[in-house]
TrEMBL record:
PROSITE patterns associated with the record: CYSTATIN_LXN
Protein name stated in the entry: Latexin
Species for this entry: Grus japonensis
Keywords: Acetylation, Cytoplasm, Heparin-binding, Inflammatory response, Protease inhibitor, Repeat
Location of the protein in the cell: Cytoplasm
Domain Cystatin LXN-type: 1-99, 116-219
Phylogenetic classification of the source organism: Eukaryota, Metazoa, Chordata, Craniata, Vertebrata
InterPro entries documented for this protein: CYSTATIN_LXN, Cystatin_sf, Latexin
Family: Belongs to the protease inhibitor I47 (latexin) family.
GO molecular function: heparin binding; metalloendopeptidase inhibitor activity
Length: 219
């Protein structure tokens, strides 16, 4: 069944696909966001769930002129306790983030004390240049939380980093403990979430643990 590209079901599935893709392909030097839905259709698979076929345009969070086209399939299983299956194919090349990633990695590695920061972006929506990679890393990692917790009736987006604290490690990885606020756009709920994030320039971002936090954690 064809859906209009702006249909609420199409945009929810597209937002989920973009979040999952960003988690798989993003880094502190490259975040991806949904720019537009070009085509969408929905297929009811008997006894399995709803499958969405999507054609999307994604943009680089830092460079809105840098876009890629992408096709994706999102399968929401019957019974909401299984994360959706997301498959995607990117057409063309993503912007190379190697230099930006290495600069950030070396800067954090050279700090004398572990990094700690709060409220990114600030109340005016601003992110300082030195915090941009920390923010992008949370944007990428939140893609995992969104993917694992989405249903056909949700649409999540990272609203803010409440707090981030670097965790000391003896190996080459960087580890950060984030408390983030997720905006669930259908219910308009703001949900605090804790996530532990591992990263190294030669490996993709990993969320090693995450859990929903009580409401008062957002205050």
């Amino acid at each position: 069944m064809e859906l209009p590209p702006g249909h609420y079901l199409a945009t929810r599935a597209a937002a989920l696909a973009a979040a999952c893709l960003c988690y798989r392909r993003g880094s502190p030097g490259r975040g991806l966001a949904l720019r537009a839905v070009r085509r969408a259709s929905r297929q009811d698979i008997n006894g399995v769930g709803q499958k969405y076929h999507l054609e999307l345009v994604l943009e680089d969070v830092l460079d809105k002129d840098s876009t890629v086209n992408c096709t994706a399939e999102v399968l929401y299983h019957l019974g909401n306790n299984i994360p959706p299956d997301v498959q995607f194919t990117i057409e063309g090349e993503l912007k190379n983030a190697e230099e930006a990633d290495n600069i950030f990695y070396n800067r954090i590695k050279s700090l004398e004390k572990e990094l700690v920061a709060e409220n990114i972006p600030d109340s005016h929506g601003n992110v300082s240049p030195e915090m941009e990679p920390v923010h992008l890393l949370a944007w990428v990692a939140s893609g995992y939380v969104i993917w694992q917790n989405s249903t056909e009736n949700t649409k999540f987006q990272l609203a803010q980093i409440k707090r981030v604290k670097q965790v000391k490690r003896s190996d080459e990885y960087l580890e950060f403990d984030y408390t983030i606020l997720l905006h669930e756009m259908v219910s308009q709920e703001i949900i605090p979430w804790q996530m532990t994030v591992l990263w190294h320039p030669r490996h993709s971002v990993q969320v090693t643990q995450g859990s929903r936090q009580p409401k008062h954690a957002s205050e």
